[in-house]
Design goal:
Elements lengths: L1 E5 L6 H8 L7 E4 L2 H9 L10 E7 L5 H7 L5 E6 L2 H14 L5 E6 L14 H12 L3 E7 L11 H28 L10 E4 L2 H4 L17 E6 L7 H4 L13 E9 L6 E4 L3 H4 L10 E6 L7 E5 L4 E4 L6 H8 L7 E6 L2 H6 L4 E4 L7 E5 L6
Parallel strand pairs: 1-2, 1-8, 2-3, 3-4, 4-5, 5-6, 6-7, 7-8
Antiparallel strand pairs: 9-10, 9-14, 10-13, 11-14, 12-13, 15-16
Helix pairs in contact: 5-6
């Protein structure tokens, strides 16, 4: 099994190094933005050989072809993602216009149900795209890629396993579909193997059983797992039951700025709102939950946000009278640490991360600065 580290959640060189320290070691990454791809270059990870190949994990934007071509000077391989025949034509038009011969190996993006990006199996659009890539002098099919965002609905390992099975069947079917087209086009001599890339954090947590899917794959194809938020995890991942609370690795530090014990339910105002957490509520219906407070606010929910304001409300099962009594002992300026629903979006809201290495989180051992913009 191959492994490709998605760096989109933390967007740092330090985090990427930790991700690639797997067993066996990996040298493959996927980036969602050009600053991530350039950040790895500027950090020396491509030159040192820590990273060999980089997949730009967004269906090829035609305005970014020149940037991706420049990145080829730094990585052993720059891979692109294709899911529209107009991307193939756009690359050819770019080369004609610029008098260049920019060429890429490409993952074809397969939509296996969540309708975010990609083409459906056995669709005329997928057939036309594969034929177009086969005939293109500037593209070749590296493999097939899918992402099961639906897997976030998992609530136990068995359900995550079902989503993983669907992912693998999707890319394996795409491989078989492509092989038929290669044969029809009399291009079989160009076929070697495809990399079949599957994954999301829930399905990655049950990927240790991938050997059972060997019979689904063509003998020369290789299975690859990709995942993004797993180095950090969040309340969404905890809700799948695949990630225990003690494995959530990030939080937002905020302060209590006002107390409204007369409201129903009683509430406390904090100085972290939508811009600090994002607007994702997740399956629990809140934006985050307090996991550290010296004055008893553990479990309180960030139930409402506006741009800079967040409102804490009592946890399930606490009566208004109990909440009022507790708030009597809470001081303005009280520090609370809050687990977010969606770590990727929360990280993107902040300009640096304080890194701690103990459960108490009292001592900052490092500061990581993430790559920003697109």
């Amino acid at each position: 099994m191959l492994y490709r580290a998605h760096v989109k959640s933390h967007k740092t060189a330090e985090g990427t190094l930790l991700q690639l320290q797997t067993s066996p070691a990996s040298h493959s990454v996927v980036c969602s933005t050009l600053p991530e791809a350039w950040g790895l270059v500027h950090a020396g990870l491509a030159k040192s050989g820590v990273v060999h190949d980089m997949l730009y994990g967004f269906p090829l934007p035609l305005d970014k072809i020149a940037d991706l071509a420049s990145l080829q000077e730094h990585y052993k391989e720059v891979l692109v993602m294709i899911d529209d025949i107009r991307q193939v034509n756009g690359l050819a038009a770019y080369n004609d216009r610029e008098g260049k011969k920019v060429a890429f190996k490409a993952f074809v993006k397969v939509n296996q149900g969540n309708l975010r990006a990609g083409l459906e199996l056995d669709s005329p659009e997928l057939a036309a795209l594969i034929k177009s890539i086969i005939s293109s002098p500037y593209l070749s099919i590296y493999g097939f890629y899918t992402h099961s965002g639906d897997a976030y609905a998992s609530r136990d390992p068995q359900k995550a396993q079902e989503f993983l099975t669907t992912e693998i069947r999707s890319v394996a079917s795409a491989s078989s579909f492509a092989r038929k087209i290669y044969k029809e086009q009399q291009k079989e001599e160009e076929l070697t193997s495809f990399v079949l890339s599957v994954g999301s954090t829930p399905t990655a947590h049950v990927s240790s059983s991938l050997s059972q899917f060997k019979d689904l794959l063509h003998s020369t194809d290789e299975l690859e797992v990709h995942a993004g938020v797993y180095p950090l995890c969040d309340l969404q991942q905890q809700s799948t039951s695949l990630v225990p609370a003690e494995n959530l690795a990030m939080g937002v530090l905020s302060r209590v700025c006002a107390i409204y014990e007369h409201r129903k339910p009683p509430q406390a105002l904090i100085d972290a709102g939508a811009i600090a957490f994002s607007k994702d509520q997740g399956p629990t219906g809140d934006f985050g939950r307090v996991y550290f407070s010296k004055q008893g606010l553990e479990g309180w929910r960030v139930y409402k946000t506006s741009q800079e304001h967040g409102l804490l409300s009592p946890p399930e099962g606490m009566s208004d009278d109990e909440a009022k009594e507790l708030l009597k002992n809470v001081s303005l300026g009280e520090i609370v640490k809050i687990r977010p629903q969606h770590a990727c979006l929360t990280c993107a809201a902040h300009h640096w991360y304080y890194v701690t290495e103990t459960k108490e989180e009292e001592t900052v051992s490092d500061v990581w600065v993430p790559w920003k913009a697109w």
